[in-house]
Write a structure and sequence with these properties.
Strand content: 15-25%
Strand order of the largest sheet: 1-2-3-4-5-6-7-8
CATH superfamily: Aldolase class I
Oligomer: single chain
Helix content: 40-55%
Structural class: alpha/beta
CATH topology: TIM Barrel
CATH class: Alpha Beta
CATH architecture: Alpha-Beta Barrel
Order of helices and strands: EHEHEHEHHEHHHEHHEHEH
Number of domains: 1
Number of helices: 12
Length: 259
């Protein structure tokens, strides 16, 4: 059984003081989480402070992006080695906002996936279609292309250390989430592709998260779907009470964990 995973993507929000306060509130709200894993991904500038707050807790820290080189003349970039030194466990790769606003390509995403793995970080590979692509019936084509490109060249063993997030672009920050049936259908398709790229056994161990307007009132029914292994949470992760509620819904596939 794949343990549910809930990842908070704070995006470009929060000063160091605000990050400390939010991380502390989440930590205190989830003193002993059971049946679920939790990772907070603050902005780079807030990472050390959040890592300090979470030290000794069951909540891990992650990053929102990385570069693919270990070091060098790459102004403004942050390497996987730097993130690992800060205690990061995973790194979000290929988020639709980076693809859309910063021109990130499939080839660059693949380099980042490889670099993350080389430094012991779990890459959280994001895939998803736009509203127009869904209307045109291209959902499966888009997610398959992004998945294959992002994982290109990986051995089956390396692929088993990856995490995938299905984040329909039309649901991110819009308040409109995919229905459990819509999300489950795409998750099942992605798991079938993972079986082809690695093996059925390995595919069954890879967690596939749902991202896109995840809130406490829809997290339970989403995570009760067998193919949905948790959530990549954006806006709701900036409110400690809401995020803690999502985590509790995700634990045990919708059950509330004991504390």
């Amino acid at each position: 059984m794949r343990a549910p995973l809930v990842v908070a993507n704070w995006k470009m929000h929060g000063t160091i003081a605000e990050g400390r306060a939010l991380a502390s509130a989440v930590r205190d709200g989830l003193k002993r989480p059971r049946g679920v894993e939790v990772v907070l991904c603050p902005p780079f500038t807030v990472l050390p402070a959040v890592a300090e707050v979470l030290a000794g807790s069951a909540i891990a820290v992650g990053a929102q992006n990385c570069y693919w080189e270990t070091s060098g003349a790459f102004t403004g970039e942050v390497s996987p080695a730097m993130l690992a030194e800060l205690g990061c466990r995973l790194v979000i790769v290929g988020h639709s906002e980076r693809r859309q606003h910063l021109g990130e390509t499939d080839a660059q995403v693949n380099l980042k996936v490889r670099a993350a793995l080389a430094h012991g970080l779990a890459p959280l590979l994001c895939v998803g279609e736009s509203a127009d692509e869904r209307r045109q019936g291209l959902t499966f084509n888009i997610v398959e292309g992004e998945l294959r490109a992002g994982l290109r060249g990986l051995s089956p063993e390396a692929l088993g250390h990856c995490i995938v997030a299905y984040e329909p672009v039309w649901a991110i920050g819009t308040g409109v989430n995919a229905t459990p049936a819509q999300a489950s259908e795409v998750h099942g398709y992605l798991r079938g592709l993972l079986s082809e790229l690695a093996s059925k056994e390995i595919a069954q161990t890879v967690r596939i998260l749902y991202g896109g307007s995840v809130k406490p009132d829809n997290a339970g029914e989403l995570c009760r779907e067998p193919e949905i292994d948790g959530g990549l949470v954006g806006g709701a992760s900036l409110q400690a009470q809401a995020f803690v509620g999502i985590v509790k819904k995700a634990a045990g596939r919708g059950a509330t964990p004991k504390e």
